[in-house]
Amino acid sequence: MGTLSPAAPPTTPERTKSRLLEAVKDCDCATAQALADKLGVTVPAIRRHLQDLQDAGQLEVRTEKPGGRGRPQHVYVLTEAGEATFPKAYATLCVDVLDQVERLFGDGAVLRVMDARRLEFQGVLASRLAGHSDLGRKLTALAAVLCEYGYAARAYQENGQWYLTQRNCPAPAVAKAFPQLCQAELTLYRDLLELPVSREARLSCGAAECRYKVG
């Protein structure tokens, strides 16, 4: 009796959507028909997946004429959120650039770059915190702004002591390679709040969060 080959695992909707995003990225004219042909599924099925991806904000549809002529047709394109689903080497590029800055301009060059960025960001934060004189309100407002930048920040008080935490680091690989980034952040909070600020935990050192003690 012959050995039966294991059945191929069924294609999940999530896998189909992932393949569909790849097809849109690769296709010069990503119409529903072209995408259905490329993935080997029916047009009604592909339209359901396309609608799901539009609802998720990963695709948008445009009306274009093929080659600038002929009847208009609906063409699907990736949004910024759709592009973000593909792997990016931004962290590696950033580390490489900073490494070259350090090699070309000396050990203090990276810190000077970080300080320049810190001063610019400090101006942005200061304008958003203007009008908050109370420390609690100021830290809560600061945490809200940091969340907009992807830091997953939170301000809270414990036994009369204020803390600011960040559960996400937008550039963990860079922070690990160049601790000057974390030092610039600590200096930023000290200058912005005009109070003593100390760091008690750090994501890039393996902690679950960056935690700052304020005041």
Automatic annotation (TrEMBL):
Recorded superkingdom: Bacteria
Family matches, as Pfam families: HTH_24
InterPro entries with a match to the protein in the record: ArsR-like_HTH (IPR011991), WH-like_DNA-bd_sf (IPR036388), WH_DNA-bd_sf (IPR036390)
Protein's name in the database: Transcriptional regulator
Organism (species): Deinococcus irradiatisoli
